[in-house]
Amino acid sequence: MARYDFASDNTAPATPEAMEAIVAANTGFTSGYGSDPVSARAADLLRETLDADAEVRFVASGTAANAISIGALCRPFEAVLAHEHAHICTDETGAPGLFGHGLGLFGLPGASGKIDPAALAGPLNAPDVSHRQSPAALSITNATEYGTVYTEGDLRALIGPVKAKGYGVHLDGARLANAAAAGFDLRAIAGLGVDILVVGGTKAGMPPTEAVVIFDRNIARRFDARLKQSGQLPSKGRFYAAPFIGMLAGHALIRHAAHANAMARRLADRMPFRVIHPVEANAVFVEMDEARLAALHAAGWFVYRFLDGSVRFMCSWATTEDSVDEIAETLRSIA
User: Fold this and answer.
1) Number of domains in the chain
2) Which of 65, 276, 289, 294 lies 20 to 30 angstroms, CA to CA, from 17?
3) How many Å apart are CA 305 and CA 289, to the nearest integer?
4) What is the pLDDT of residue 70?
């Protein structure tokens, strides 16, 4: 039977803290559609974690969270700037364009998943032309698709020119917990000019749930109607919110992310193949030919070849030292 320990952090089970919070929320009757005390408590904990006054909503998936968020920042005839390998550009089946009623995506280059600030100049300074979609927002991912982490300074260098144009900023935090565990200060986000943030729950060890944090109150107006139209305003919203209580109340979110990051470093230290991106969060990317990847699959371990041709190994809160050492031994045997 194939093992999926390192295929993705999505393949891990949910943490005990998240599941216990769901059970605790499963008592009595309450109001629906996110107006319940459980959702309010989870939102308060997120505001406390971010040290920011913001509106918070809970949805079922990262794709929905991202697509709805950037749809709130752009009109249909405008575009979002993002790294060319960002999840919204490569893995969301056109959802941003669907939820944004035709908005465009403009991919930018940059090493190891981080947008090159110099690449912003061209699209930001291009004249508006009626025959193409001009940019109206920037989307940044932290930690990036390649497991690297933007510093506060990195983000300021990207966000500053965008805000100077009066454009919006979306932060895809599918692995924000891993970025925080690597040293990124979550309390800095609100002051950076981010208008709307997605705080990842699923990859962090929760059942399917993501938090949408809206710093710009103008976006918050009628946002629930946007969610309802998109099929993302669940009637029993407390069950989407509850895992965040379990993960934030006792600081399990960052603790588990730190473990995942540590397992990635352990794997990188034992990796016989060349590691091609800095290991800063919970991912290890290596150079591996097709024959050796097939041998790894044949040995029972499933991992993906990624967008840049490298092979990706993802660690999660549930990754153990034993499983790292076991796959490392298999990798040595096929290297």
Assistant:
1) 2
2) 65
3) 10
4) 97
